[in-house]
Amino acid sequence: MDFMTDQDVQRYQEDGYVVLDGLLTSQECDELRQRMAEIVERMDVPEHCRTTFSTYHDEQLKTQGNADYFITSGDRIRFFFEKGVFDDKGEFIVPKQRSLNKVGHALHAYEPLYEKVTHSPKVQGIAKKLGLVSPVILQSMFIFKQPGIGGEVTPHQDATFLYTEPLGRVMGVWIALEDATINNGCLWFIPGSHNSGITRRMVRTPKGTFPLTDFIGREQTYDDEKFVAAPVKKGGVILIHGQVVHRSAENTSEESRHVYTFHIMEAQQTRWSPDNWLQPTEDLPFPPLYT
Fold first, then answer.
1. Which helix (H) or strand (E) element contains residue 52?
2. I need a surface site. Which of 190, 222, 283, 287 has the fewest CB within 10 A?
3. Helix %, strand %, coil % for the chain, to 5?
4. Pairing relation of β-strands 200-204 and 246-248?
5. Which cofactor does it need (predicted)?
6. pLDDT tens column, 208-217
7. pLDDT tens digits, one per residue of 135-194
8. Which of 284, 282, 277 is nearest to 72 (CA)?
9. 3-state class of 157 per DSSP?
């Protein structure tokens, strides 16, 4: 029996996202979280890498794109921190495990547990059910959404950052490693918004110029009332169309909201934009999903 039903496919096509329960067992979720705790415990944080991560437009340019650390992280495992976790001397003022916003962007390539989940029969089955012929993995991230300080992620479309021609070839696979609730910062979507194209793109600037990335187009404002909450149980997954508008609120609760997420692109008859911040490298071409 297929993990994803015809009804699920229809919901994904109509709304631009769908929530599916039971992609991973509770034990599999715990193993991924435990492995990440080990990675964080051993992390070495160079001074220049103490880059805070935000989705506010200007800060995004300053902290993500400007930092060579970010733009060269596509084939590496690197660490991105919440705001206000270091003092003026660059020392932690919160426990190390509570300091991170995310770890990315190549867990799927270098960490066997994450690679196994990314290429699991269920994930491959989802891609086949959606008719993907030649899907590849673009990037992967562990997102922490720390208790009390996990920042807001403002409304956005993934295709702003992961642009293809034609559009509609990118899908996010967002796996809840803990319950994602309204209290701890679950995702919210505007159903059907994937049908309206995109209004802006983040692009690499010409070589030798600074900042390293910039936005073209305009940032859109959205009516709060159009957003629908998408809570998901531990082990569940949300499939996210590259153009659907989504956001998440701050985590003001005392519970974390750990997630493993990765993006898939249908590579057949698709052009990956050479202007995207993320580029395949000799070390790590975009690996095929089907194994």
1. none
2. 283
3. 25, 25, 45
4. unpaired
5. Fe cation
6. 877 888 999 9
7. 999 999 999 999 988 788 999 999 999 999 999 999 999 999 999 999 999 999 999 999
8. 277
9. coil
